[in-house]
Amino acid sequence: MDAVREEEEHEVVIVGGGIGGLATALALHRKGLRSVVYERSESLRAEGSAIGVFRNGWRALDQLGVGDVLRDKAILVQGGQDIWVDEGNQQQPIPFPGGEARCLKRSDLIKALADALPPETVRFGYKVVAVTMDPKNMFPTLTLNNGSSIRAKVLIGCDGSNSVVADFLGIKPTRLFALCAVRGLTSYPNGHVFSPELVRIKRDRVMVGRIPVDNNLVYWFVTVPLSWLDRKFPDDPELIRKLTTKITEGFPSDAVEMIEGSDLDSLSITHLRYHAPWEMLVGRFRRGPITVAGDAMHAMGPFLGQGGSVALEDAVVLARNLGRKIASLSPYERGKEIMTDKIGQAFDQYVEERRMRMVRLATQAYLTGLILGSPPMSITKFIAAIIMVILFRDRNEHAKFDCGNL
Q: pTM for the complete prediction?
């Protein structure tokens, strides 16, 4: 943990050094705005193994200036298919978004974002435990886990689905799907034989998915109803692998062997969470010079493969609006109340731009989660499927979004 004075002051403070926090810091840097990121981990976080990035995410990465660096890290994904084991391994093509799609190792994405930042932007080992606001000048103060305080003129919460900043803003806490997910990576030193596509294999209510990252590495995931598992998930990677192997008994041998040969350090098991779309529709995402981005704003299930990409979009849109407003201020105005007003206006514009994008994505992910997590022939599953057909005739519309120029 770096040494921190009893109280420091920074113009822009970002809480959380995951994809959203690092992307936001980089977007602000590209706009000439210095920020400091406080991250609770002792080093760069890479939980989640890998993430899919569709063309909307690549547009954002190009705006951040790291797209070309990352294209060399992953092969193109060219479509997909569903396989139903219970129906004699019947196959059906998955309607797949057009344009560029790749599966990136999370660590590669995190490293690319961090490497593009100025030195000492990220401060590791600091957990923000409380946020308060001075009622006179409206500037926020953060209390850290070591007892020190940080004053900021601008505060952006990118601290995930259990966000301290979101809690301060009064954003409703995340809810739980009736599903959990295991994620991992499997290395094939001599190369794998899988085609460059998303494959989802379904048996009973369990789904195994895989996507090649490159010619030697495969990302995979398993979703299973929570009711099938003990409430307390194992932390030990070996136990996670044994549990997942047991869950996937009866699946094709290449899927089982993929899980059995997984890289232990990559394994994780999580109970899937989401922010309710109806709460996003009316939620308050800004108070004074404070706002949120990424999962702190719109946690959703992984069913659309958009969590990371939408956080990248947030970063571009937020920095664009904030950069415009701060650029219009004189050095004298930056220390005055007028700065708080201008920041508030910028954040209001940011929230307005993002709200309906978030609501549509969250709604589609929520319905998908209901369909996957509900028992066969249940009324919930039937109603969710009907609403999905009505609202989302083009299931891949989410990947066509353009966040615009930085």
A: 0.94
